[in-house]
């Protein structure tokens, strides 16, 4: 069954892929980056990520931490990824329907935090003026997961996140290549097109080759996996989904609060799922249905 919410969600196949949609896709297309489309107003829009194999981890040997090693091959099945981080306005739609529920003893959104960009006015959740299109922050992992459920989606695994961040598993250090500039992403400080000391509106910078925005910088993005610092030493090749248990969840991509080097696609962060922060948000992904699948 398609959830009611799906009526507000847009899925895009890149033109090059849609021609092959009903036939087995040649191996050469696996992991091929796809071309993006303009973002659609406040509605969630997804890009198709063809499945493929890639080398996950610190390809360049310049990570801060051993947790990105060893580099290892991973097979990722096709999935859909939201083009942008979830915005304050999108998150308000959710809160106005479901309420700001308590899960594991904490509210989905920490409205009491001075850094929260959403407020409750006249019984309704509204973004602070001017922050409608900025990514939601001060949201817990449970609040992120609940939103994803509500929209008929889920949080990405960190393997999916990294595969998408390097446009289908290309050997890239940063989402745009060997380097990242202030004209490409919002990291700490300002300069060039990065005019922001804190969050920027989503999709202000150019998309990656895959057609997604702010995959590095702006806000950290929560993944579904538990964080394990030695997980790469013993991980399944096919669609790894993290350790069975843990204390922290994986976050990826760096933020407005961290330096350029933290925007590396292989960098792994972690975050207490009961906590919320001024520079941590999320984006959602969706599984490919049988009908949409073009794997033989
Ligand atoms: Ca900045
Ligand atoms: Ca981001
Ligand atoms: Ca907080």
What's the topology here?
Elements: E1 9-12, H1 15-18, E2 44-49, E3 52-56, E4 72-76, E5 79-82, H2 88-98, E6 102-103, E7 106-107, E8 118-121, E9 124-127, H3 141-150, H4 158-165, E10 220-226, E11 249-252, E12 268-271, E13 280-281, E14 285-287
Parallel strand pairs: 1-2, 10-13
Antiparallel strand pairs: 2-5, 3-4, 5-14, 6-7, 8-9, 10-11, 11-12
Bound molecules: calcium ion (CA) (3 copies).
Written account of the structure:
With 296 residues, the protein is α+β, with helices and mostly antiparallel strands. Helix content is 11%, strand content 19%. It has 4 helices and 14 strands. The chain has helices spanning 15-18, 88-98, 141-150, 158-165; strands at residues 9-12, 44-49, 52-56, 72-76, 79-82, 102-103, 106-107, 118-121, 124-127, 220-226, 249-252, 268-271, 280-281, 285-287. The chain has a 4-stranded mixed beta sheet with strand order 1-2-5-14, with no helix packed on it. Strands 12-11-10-13 form a 4-stranded mixed beta sheet. The longest helix is centred in the first third of the chain and has 11 residues, at 88-98. The radius of gyration is 18 Å and the shape is globular. The two termini are 24 Å apart. Mean pLDDT is 87; it is low at 1-7 and 14-42.
